[in-house]
Specification:
Blueprint lengths: L2 H16 L8 H10 L6 H11 L5 E2 L1 H10 L6 H13 L4 E3 L7 E3 L7 E4 L5 E3 L25 E4 L2 E2 L2 E2 L21
Helix pairs in contact: 1-3, 2-3, 4-5
The chain binds zinc ion.
The site of zinc ion (ZN) has 6 residues, from loops.
InterPro entries: FUR, WH-like_DNA-bd_sf, WH_DNA-bd_sf
Protein name: Transcriptional repressor
Pfam families: FUR
């Protein structure tokens, strides 16, 4: 696809995306948000940022965003999405999560909070604020300060009231509730 066609498609993809939900960010609002974070609002960055923040807080991978972009005909490569997410995380617009050694997840909620991760399906959920209390961190080496604390609480289901031990195979375990259908 020629560059001019890509720009045309991008220009016309934005209004379609805005229609997805009441309160979804406008392209102007997203551009302002990017500038405020010190990020130059290129058309592709605006499109990716709109996708990211269009549906409330969530934990997302580059691959998921790529699929969403393809679905609404935004012509952005996976490599561009990787680069954008990396830039956004560097500027603290989103938070990189260290929950899965094979995939990088990003959190649109950059506030300090911990995560539950299901070992059945890998779904990630926020631990409620009252669910965990972190005390002050002592012993930080002289001259350094804490910039990020990540706590991951890994979960296994109970089946028929019985906990499944870490050594047991989970391949036959259902991914239906008690897991939330749409984990945050
Ligand atoms: Zn989160």
């Amino acid at each position: 696809m020629a560059l001019s066609e890509q720009h045309h498609a991008l220009r016309h993809a934005e209004p379609a995306h805005r229609l997805r939900g009441v309160g979804a960010p406008t392209a102007d609002g997203v551009a302002r948000r990017l500038r405020a974070a010190g990020i130059r609002p290129t058309r592709q960055r605006v499109a990716i940022c709109s996708l990211l923040f269009g549906g409330g807080d969530r934990h997302v991978t580059a691959e998921v965003l790529f699929e969403e972009a393809q679905r609404i005909k935004i012509p952005i490569s996976l490599a561009t999405i990787y680069n954008c997410l990396h830039t956004f995380a560097k500027r603290r617009l989103i938070r990189e999560l260290f929950v899965d050694p094979t995939t990088t997840y990003y959190d649109t909620n950059t506030s300090d909070h911990c995560h539950f991760v299901s070992q059945v399906d890998g779904s990630i959920m926020d631990v409620p604020a009252a669910g965990i209390q972190l005390g002050p961190i002592e012993g930080v080496p002289e001259g350094l300060h804490v910039v990020d604390v990540q706590v991951v609480v890994r979960l296994r289901p109970k089946v028929d009231g019985r906990s499944i031990s870490p050594a047991e195979d989970l391949s036959g375990v259902s991914t239906t509730p008690p897991y939330p259908a749409t984990p945050v």
